[in-house]
Amino acid sequence: MAIVASETRFGKIGRPVLAWVVALLFFFPIFWLVFTSFKTDADAVKPEFLIFFTPTLDNYLNMTENYDYWRFATNSVITSVFATVFALAVGIPCAYAMAFNPTRATKDVLMWMLSTKMLPAAAVLYPMTFLTKSLGLFDTHFMVIVVLMLINLPIVIWMLFTYFKEIPKEIIEAGQMDGVNTWGEIKEILIPLAWGGIASTALLCFIFCWNEAYWTVRLTTTEAATLSKLIEGNRAPEGLFFGRLSAVSAAAVGPIVVLGWFCQKQLVQGLTFGAVK
Amino acid sequence: MGRIVLESVTKSFGETQVIPPLDLTIEDGEFAVFVGPSGCGKSTLLRLIAGLEDTTSGKVVIDGDDVTQVSPSKRGLAMVFQTYALYPHMTVRKNIAFPMRMAGMSEQEQEAKIKAAAESLNLTDYLDRKPGQLSGGQRQRVAIGRAIVRDPSAFLFDEPLSNLDAALRVGMRLEITEMHKRMGTTMIYVTHDQVEAMTMADKIVVLQAGVIEQVGSPLDLYHKPQNKFVAGFIGCPKMNLIEGAEAAKHDAHTIGIRPEHVEVSTTDGLWQGTVGVAEHLGSDTFIHIHGVPGCDPMTVRAAGDVAVKHGDTVYLTPNDSLLHKFDDKGLRIE
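ok -> structure tokens follow
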């Protein structure tokens, strides 16, 4: 009885408290980032202004006026949207083929795709830089889109494959009997049925593309540079300008946090789908 | 037209051969039923005809055309699945219209056919609902409606009634049989339920481990089973198979007698036994009797009002003219 009672008490009070602590722990860096972005660079490093300070919008004004924030943001949108669209365009037929016409090699192919994510990006930094420069693609939108698409393709295909596996094969077969060709199966049956899964996958892929920094920083200079590059560009030899850096970072993660907030239901579904059948 | 011929068709999954070389002809307008226990290859055979599985070797010929390499959509067949396989995101109307839309039929023609199909299947009031809002029986009707509107050369049914409750199953069985009589289109129907096979078929194909054990009309199979497997599979309750001294008296390895061909008495008879269970169905009584030499328990079908109960001693006399004899390989002896 005592054990049951203590468990109940923990369940009623302990669990929500624990959940709040963990949530606040995760939220704190974002809060602090936004908080610091309203301080001047000088105030940001002074302990006496840790909590109490005179808020200013200078960092944000400076960012839009001097750093061309909107160009970086536009590049982030263009590259993330197109990389996501292309990843889906390749991933949907690919996952469809593996989900509904599996062969003995299907599992191995899926594992191999995933194994490419285990390769340290730094290992291919030199060949990638050499390749993009020699092909004249360095600092172009096209190259950033292709790279973002390729690095996210394994995850996209894995996620779509898991969603498609949930669709009964008979429905696809009924479509075949009803006279649809392969493209018709995908367009008329598969996409409408897996719409929720495809949306979740697209959302995650978009977030990953938006947040990607390793390649976007190294393979661009100005033309195709994304918000990651803008953040990175705020490093100076004299040290870090915390106020400015915080404003740039907040403006970079802001759109994705808002998007994530509105789509959290789909995101959670996307991340946990197939965990319990 | 819908004459379907299988010529030396085989199917293997990897190293495992599930259909050894098989020849079969289904005539135009025939109602053929593939029946057999689970895993006997009957659904695989149907899927080979549909084109949903590729044959390992051999030919599938429909109306004289070799369609072995032709995709399912081009074979002119319609299929009704066990799980209904309706498109859950479409209304009943759109489900039924789907194959016609894919065939590029005009909207007017589609509407006329949907109306006719819905009327014949009592679906008129449900046309704007989605499959999730329908009962199992209604869903299966929609699946049949979707098949009808294509005017296929043959209908393929893969255990379509297995997911329905018993009462609904009997009703749908009649509806499908009537539909066949009305349309006269070739139908191939897969089931593991021998009652469905007996009541619906013009021709029954009994399968075991991918091998055709016997092909014939329901009464052919009932009266002249070619081997012990068919004898035991066709008929409900099952035929009693007796081995040993009783069989030897008839110069056979095994003799078979159907439960309805044994007379039961409480006073005298050829064999003596003790009643284990008496199942009173009203119209009939199925009595399971222990202690009969060479067959334990023996099942007897008696009149509905027979007054026997657990533990009673009864005497049984088979109708000798209706005995089936089988040799040591299990094959029928005439």
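Chain B has nine helices and 19 strands.
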